[in-house]
Amino acid sequence: LMNWLHVFVQNSLLTGVYPASPSSWLVVVVATIGTRYVKMDPSLGIIDYIRSAIPRSCMSFRSRTLLSATLFATGVWVTGILAVRYSLRALLCYHGWMFEPHGSTRIRTRIWATLVKIFSGRHPMLYSFQTCLPHLPVPSVEDTLHRYLESVRPLLNDLQYKRMEALTIQFKHQTAPRLQKYLLLKSWWATNYVSDWWEEYVYLRSRTPIMVNSNYYAMDLLYIIPSSVQAARAGNTVHAMLLYRRKLDREEIKPMMALKLVPMCSNQVERMFNTTRIPGLETGTVKQSALVYIYNKAVFVDCMLYSLSLVKLDILQKQKRIKIITSYIKYERKGSVRISLSCRIPWAKARSEFFSHGKNKISLTAIERAAFFMTLDDEEQAYDKENPTTLDSYAKSLLHGKCFDRWFDKSFTFIVFKNGKLGINTEHSWADAPVIGHLWEFVLATDCFELSYTESGHCKGEMNKKLPPPQRLQWDLPEECKEMIQQSYKVAKALADDVNFCCFPFMSFGKGMIKRFKTSPDAFIQIALQLAHFRDKGAFCLTYESSMTRLFRDGRTETVRSCTNETCAFVQAMLDTHKTDKERLSLFRKASEKHQYLYRLAMTGAGIDRHLFCLYVVSKFLGVHSPFLNQVLAEPWALSTSQTPQQQTSLFNLSKYPDYVSSGGGFGPVAEDGYGVSYIIVGEDLITFHISSKYSSPETDSHRFAKNIQQAMMDLKTLQESSRVKPKN
């Protein structure tokens, strides 16, 4: 505890004075005192004034002079720190660098980049830039409404568009000004005018099961399984997680930087460990345990088939490196019950009535205070090149498992399969995918390249034979509680069985070829998705692409509405046999440029949907009825997409280890008759897609959509190559 307090105080001091350092304070003090000895007064009389205010009876003239000079120097030092911080915040408000053409940088931006480097200091810690990050700006109502109408134009016929235009105009002149004033007022005192409402109303107040509907997953390496011994793989990766947690506690993880220059918010990282989503009848909460670190024993929850066991993994100090030995992991299956309470209201009632006292409270507290939840799964999962559908089963297992062998309320559930394959299931309210992705990259890289295994696949290190056996959690569940659990399980099982997954690695080409076409890889894929969706359903739809707003303090996500007028014009041209490739290519360029422009707007706080969402929340607070906002918030996202970030840590050298590529991750369908599509662009020649839909919808089929995506990708490639073929004379 004392060691942790020492680290906490030290980190707080270093972060509090950044970009300065305690040694710089000493330099300023010594320099100021030195000027007094050469009979100079840099304070212009302030030091003498401070000295005169100090009672003479307390100390000598010389001591009072030293103290007053020290106080003056400290004031100058603190003022300098504040000046640098406010200057850096002002610099970070500039986002013109994002909108400049690729390969050309204006002089103004170069000067800006130089100043940012100067004011950013050296060797920042994880939270060094938090107070320097600008607040998320509130867009003007006029800009938001203009972009909204533009985004829905390709989805509505003329009559529908005129009706929507009339609602927009009415809202703009009658309702919006009042709502906007309250939103601006909030933005003045809140660090972020969106994030707290987004967490509460989108996640915590949702009453649907978070399994499938909210939680998302990440897979292991696509081709590699470093060890097929389940316990060994669990031991090494848990050890890697604790190494990451140690770095996190000590703030030794470097803050994420856009273009290695612009800092991004690190706030979400704080709740990675010892965090649980607590259900409530009306709204839930995210609770982080006060437990900071366990030095001699790490406590995890092992949820096997029909069992909940408290597993203690030995941590040995050897050669100044912690070793985790997992030989004591045991599977206990007899006399257990299935814990499945995914529905929020029944779970909240059961937690209050049956898990608030006695054995149940002790066991539940052990789970909720744990660093994370670990499942040793009794199934085998892996990618088989001869049978690509194995990825579908892998994805479904990570997303929902058997519905009772994942603790979906934990910040994340770490899953180790019988054959050593890994995965992770993440609760969504506390953080977004890039945050857990950073941890996941560190864990996989540390496991493969630093910890490694013996030739037989076991952990390196020696076992402590004095370890006590695992302690099984005790439960006392009355029949009424078991009945609630069984009913919840039926709901969860039906939800899980309805998920139709198709995951496939697209290997025909990757970002290397796309960049040779002078096109953004993300824009290329998004346009391909629009072409695939139109072929799949014969219509365009409202499309969600997730973008981050972490350039601002406490920033989370914003929506990029990828179905634009330009993209729709291109898709229609691709299906029009009378259009030439030259015409199609011209439309493709316009669609790509428009998509990149919208993505940049979203990242710089000028998106549409978060602003409209907050205006809607204000309207509910004030009791203001708005047909326009009701219509906007009711529109379903029939195509929800997201790009999985990768190589955030630069720990993987794909040129040296080309087989160590990530499989990415995915999520469940957002709309009943829609698709959820996640993709990860790995290296130069691989893009892995994760597609989800519902069997119950006659309009969707994940495998059919996957074929349409592959065809669309190849068609775009053929189109791009046609422009590079010189006509014969």
Automatic annotation (TrEMBL):
Q: Which reaction does it catalyse?
A: (R)-carnitine + hexadecanoyl-CoA = O-hexadecanoyl-(R)-carnitine + CoA
Where's the Choline/carnitine acyltransferase domain?
136-711
MF GO annotations: carnitine O-palmitoyltransferase activity
Membrane topology of this protein: Multi-pass membrane protein
Any matching Pfam family: Carn_acyltransf
Coiled coil regions in record:
none
User: What's the Enzyme Commission number for this chain?
Assistant: 2.3.1.21
Q: Which BP terms from GO are recorded? A: carnitine metabolic process; energy homeostasis; fatty acid metabolic process; long-chain fatty acid transport; response to (R)-carnitine; response to bacterium
Q: Entry's PROSITE patterns?
A: ACYLTRANSF_C_1, ACYLTRANSF_C_2
**Which keywords are on file for this protein?**
Acyltransferase, Fatty acid metabolism, Lipid metabolism, Membrane, Mitochondrion, Mitochondrion outer membrane, Transferase, Transmembrane, Transmembrane helix, Transport
Report the subcellular localization: Mitochondrion outer membrane
Record field: transmembrane: 20-38, 66-88
Q: Domain of life here?
A: Eukaryota
One GO cellular component this record assigns the protein to is: mitochondrial outer membrane
Catalytic residues as annotated in Swiss-Prot or TrEMBL? H428
Keyword Amino-acid biosynthesis applies: no
Per the record, the pathway is: Lipid metabolism; fatty acid beta-oxidation
Q: Which InterPro entries match?
A: Carn_acyl_trans (IPR000542), CAT-like_dom_sf (IPR023213), Cho/carn_acyl_trans (IPR039551), Cho/carn_acyl_trans_2 (IPR042231)
Query: What does this protein's UniProt record list under function?
Result: Catalyzes the transfer of the acyl group of long-chain fatty acid-CoA conjugates onto carnitine, an essential step for the mitochondrial uptake of long-chain fatty acids and their subsequent beta-oxidation in the mitochondrion.
For this entry, the protein name equals Carnitine O-palmitoyltransferase 1, muscle isoform
Task: Give the gene that encodes this protein.
Answer: CPT1B
